[in-house]
Specification:
single chain; alpha+beta; 3-stranded antiparallel sheet; 12 strands; about 50% helix
Length: about 575
C-alpha cells in the first residue's frame, strides 16, 4: 500500500497551514477508503478477530474495510492529541425549546467514560430533543468510544482530521432515523497588535514566498494585523425517534474554533426568541444542526468586513500615485485575488451543505403530527441561510472585480507616468535637435571657407611652387590613413554588422578580405539568378498538362483550381 501522500497532508502547527483536501476520500460512497491507483493491493493487513476488542477495535470492528492500512494512511488516529486531556461540553435542547447545559466532562479515565456511554443505552432522555457534544482535544480512545457507541462512519473522522469538505447521509431507516455528516471549512478573522520590531515587513517576507491559499491571509491596516484563516465545522448527527445526538469535532490548531467557544455560542443561541419558537413549533432536532451552520455565516461576514477595509486602503494607496507603494503592492494584489478565488470555492461548499440539509428530511419525522409544519419551517430557514450565502457570493465577486479595477488602475497610472516621462524626454530631444540644427547652419556657412583655406594652405607644388609634395601623394596618404583607421576600429569591436557576433580575433583582423569576398559572391549569385529567370524555356510554359478533364476554362496549378473567367484571362 502506498503512503506517499500521508506526509504531504500533515498539519503544520507553526505556520497554521492546513492540508490540501483529498476529495476522493471524502465520503463513504468511495468503495476504496484511502487507496490510490499506485497502491500495492497485493499486500495483506494483519489478521483481525472481530468481537474481541469492544471499542478498542474501532473502526475495523464495525467497518471491515477500514483495515490498519487505510486507518494509518488517513492519519485519523495519529493526529489525535496525546498530551492535553480530552474535554467534552454538552447541551440538551428540550422539547419545549429550552436549552440545558450539561456538566463539563474531562476525560481522565477511559473505562469511566465508556461505562457512562454504555449506561446511556438503558436511559431514555426524557423531553430531550437533541443532545450536542462538543469535543476538545479528541483523543484516540475517545474517538474510538464515540465511533463505537454511535456507530459513526470512519469517514467523518478521516475527513475532519484532513479538512476535506464533505456531506453525506447514511444508515437511513424510514420511520426510525439516519446519520448525516457535514464537514465545512469556512473563513474567519483574528485581530492582533502589530509588532514591527519583531517581524519583517509583509512586503519583504511575501516577495520570497509563493502564494499559498491554504495559509492565513495577513491584512495589515496600519494598527493591527488581521489574519483571515480557514476554520472548520465538523458535525455528525445521529437522528432517531427518541432523541438525536450531534458530535462536533474541533481541530487542534492555533486560532481555530474550540469546542468551548462553539459551546458558548450555541448556549447563547438558546436565548433567541426566534429560534425558541422554531424549537417549540417542531420536534425535528435538525433545526439545532442548522443553527450551528449560522456560526460559519457570521464568521464569513466578519471576515469580509475586514477584507473590505483592506481593499479600500489599497485603492487609496493606488490613487495617491505613490509608485514605490505600487511596486510593493504588486504581491498583495495578486495574493488577495488568489485567496478570493479560493473563498469562492469554500462558499460554494457552504451552499451545497445547506442544500444538503434542506434535501435530507429526518426519517424519524415521517409519522409526526406536525410534519407539514416542520417541512415548511425547514424550507424557510434553509432558504434564509442560502439567501445570506448568496449575498456573500455577490460580495466576493465584487471584491474580485474591485481588485481587478485596482490592478488596471495601477497599470494605467504607471503607463500614464511613463507617457509623461517620454513626453518630457521627447521635448528635450526636440530642443537638442533645434540646437544641433543651428550648429549645422553655422557649419554650412563656415565649411566652404574653411575648406578653401585648407586647400590654399597646402604645401604642394600645384598651389605653392617650390614645395616638395604633390596633391597626388596627399590623396594616397589620406586614403591609406582612412583605411587603417577604419580597419582598426572594426577589428577591435566584438559586435559589428561586418562580422558575426563572437567571431575570433583572427577573423576580425582579416575582415576586409572576408567582406570583399562575400560581396563578390553575392553579386555573382544575383547575376546567376537573373540569368535563369530570362531563359526562353522558363518563359514559355505549356498549359496543356495543367488542363483538367479537357475543360479549357479550368487550370490546375499545384492542386489549386482557378476559374479563368474569375482572373480575367482567356486562351
Amino acid at each position: 500500500m502506498s503512503y506517499s501522500g500521508a506526509s504531504s497532508t500533515a498539519l503544520d502547527g507553526r505556520t497554521s497551514s492546513i492540508p490540501v483536501p483529498v476529495y476522493r476520500h471524502a465520503a463513504p460512497s468511495g468503495p476504496w477508503p484511502w487507496v490510490d491507483f499506485n497502491a500495492d493491493l497485493s499486500s495483506c493487513d494483519p489478521l483481525f478477530e472481530k468481537g474481541k476488542h469492544e471499542w478498542r477495535g474501532y473502526p475495523q470492528e464495525l467497518f471491515g474495510n477500514w483495515t490498519a492500512t487505510p486507518v494509518a494512511r488517513s492519519e485519523m488516529l495519529k493526529r489525535c492529541p496525546r498530551s492535553d486531556p480530552c474535554i467534552i461540553y454538552g447541551i440538551d435542547v428540550m422539547n419545549d425549546g429550552q436549552f440545558k447545559t450539561l456538566e463539563l466532562h474531562r476525560v481522565e479515565n477511559e473505562d469511566e467514560l465508556w461505562s457512562k456511554l454504555k449506561k446511556e443505552e438503558s436511559i431514555v432522555r426524557e423531553n430531550v430533543s437533541v443532545r450536542a457534544l462538543f469535543v476538545d482535544n479528541l483523543s484516540e480512545s475517545v474517538l474510538k468510544m464515540l465511533g463505537t457507541k454511535y456507530n459513526i462512519e470512519p469517514f467523518f473522522f478521516s475527513s475532519s482530521t484532513n479538512w476535506i469538505p464533505s456531506r453525506y447521509r447514511e444508515d437511513v431507516r424510514h420511520g426510525e432515523g439516519d446519520h448525516i455528516t457535514v464537514i465545512l471549512p469556512f473563513i474567519r478573522t483574528t485581530g492582533k497588535k502589530r509588532k514591527p520590531q519583531l517581524t519583517p515587513s509583509l512586503t519583504d517576507r511575501n516577495r520570497k514566498d509563493t502564494i499559498d491559499v491554504m495559509l492565513p491571509l495577513q491584512l495589515d491596516d496600519g494598527e493591527h494585523v488581521h489574519d483571515l484563516l480557514i476554520d472548520l465545522l465538523a458535525l455528525h448527527m445521529i437522528r432517531s425517534k427518541d432523541s438525536a445526538t450531534i458530535i462536533s469535532y474541533h481541530p487542534v490548531l492555533h486560532d481555530r474554533t474550540t469546542a468551548e467557544r462553539l459551546y458558548q455560542v450555541m448556549e447563547r443561541a438558546g436565548g433567541s426568541v426566534y429560534w425558541n419558537k422554531i424549537f417549540k413549533a417542531s420536534e425535528d432536532p435538525t433545526f439545532f444542526f442548522l443553527a450551528i451552520l449560522w456560526y460559519a455565516l457570521y464568521a464569513w461576514d466578519e471576515a469580509f468586513e475586514v477584507l473590505y477595509n483592506r481593499i479600500k486602503n489599497v485603492e487609496v494607496i493606488l490613487n495617491g500615485h505613490d509608485f514605490t507603494a505600487m511596486f510593493d503592492l504588486n504581491y498583495i494584489l495578486h495574493s488577495l485575488q488568489a485567496h478570493l478565488l479560493q473563498y469562492q470555492t469554500l462558499l460554494h461548499d457552504f451552499e451545497l451543505s445547506v442544500k444538503f440539509v434542506m434535501e435530507s428530511p429526518n426519517p424519524a419525522m415521517e409519522n409526526s403530527h406536525n410534519k407539514g409544519t416542520t417541512e415548511e419551517l425547514m424550507q424557510r430557514e434553509c432558504k434564509n441561510l442560502l439567501s445570506e450565502i448568496d449575498r456573500l457570493h455577490n460580495r466576493c465577486s465584487m471584491f474580485i472585480n474591485r481588485l481587478k479595477n485596482a490592478t488596471d488602475l495601477a497599470f494605467a497610472t504607471v503607463n500614464i507616468e511613463d507617457s509623461r516621462q517620454t513626453f518630457k524626454l521627447t521635448r528635450a530631444t526636440l530642443r537638442d535637435s533645434a540646437a544641433m540644427k543651428q550648429i549645422s547652419y553655422l557649419t554650412m556657412i563656415f565649411l566652404p571657407a574653411s575648406f578653401t583655406a585648407s586647400v590654399f594652405g597646402m604645401n604642394v607644388r600645384e598651389i605653392n611652387p617650390g614645395s616638395l609634395e604633390s596633391i597626388t601623394r596627399y590623396v594616397w596618404v589620406s586614403f591609406l590613413l582612412t583605411f587603417v583607421t577604419t580597419w582598426i576600429v572594426i577589428a577591435v569591436q566584438p559586435y559589428s554588422t561586418i562580422h558575426k557576433s563572437g567571431a575570433s580575433w583572427w577573423r576580425r583582423a582579416i575582415w576586409p578580405a572576408l567582406y570583399i569576398t562575400q560581396k563578390v559572391i553575392e553579386y555573382f549569385r544575383s547575376f546567376s539568378v537573373k540569368g535563369k529567370k530570362t531563359l526562353p524555356q522558363e518563359n514559355d510554359i505549356s498549359l496543356g498538362q495543367y488542363r483538367r478533364n479537357g475543360d479549357p476554362s479550368i487550370l490546375r496549378f499545384d492542386d489549386a483550381i482557378y476559374e479563368e473567367g474569375a482572373i480575367g484571362t482567356s486562351i
